[in-house]
């Protein structure tokens, strides 16, 4: 099933990362739990999540201004994506 210990550790890391701001620890832990459970239920590995993020970045490059040279960034992203696939 789900590794609840890892989910709680991820939620605690999330809360610790954002502590000291205007939010209470219970609010941050709640937000961390929501994010951790969503990640666990998605069933994707870390490399699959990264590959999806890279594809999203490549798609977002289409909307950059024509003044911006996107080719170096596109090549770097495609190289990283191909290394993840290998």
* Backbone structural class: mainly alpha
Q: Can you give the mean pLDDT?
A: 91
- Count the domains: 2
Oligomer: single chain
- Give the low-pLDDT segments: none
Largest sheet: none
Strand content: under 5%
Please state the CA-atom Rg, rounded to the nearest Å.
17 Å
User: What form results from the Cα inertia axes?
Assistant: flat
- The helix-strand sequence is HHHH
Distance between the termini: 28 Å
How many runs of DSSP E, i.e. beta strands?
0
Helical stretch count?
4
Helix content: over 70%
Short précis:
With 86 residues, the chain is mainly alpha-helical.
Keyphrases for this structure?
flat; mainly alpha; 86 residues; 0% strand
Please tell me about this protein's structure:
- By secondary structure, the chain is mainly alpha-helical.
- It has two domains: 4-42, no CATH class; 46-85, no CATH class.
- The chain contains four helices and no strands.
- Helix 1 packs across helix 2.
- It is flat, with a radius of gyration of 17 Å.
Write the topology of this structure.
Layout: H1 4-18, H2 25-42, H3 46-60, H4 71-85
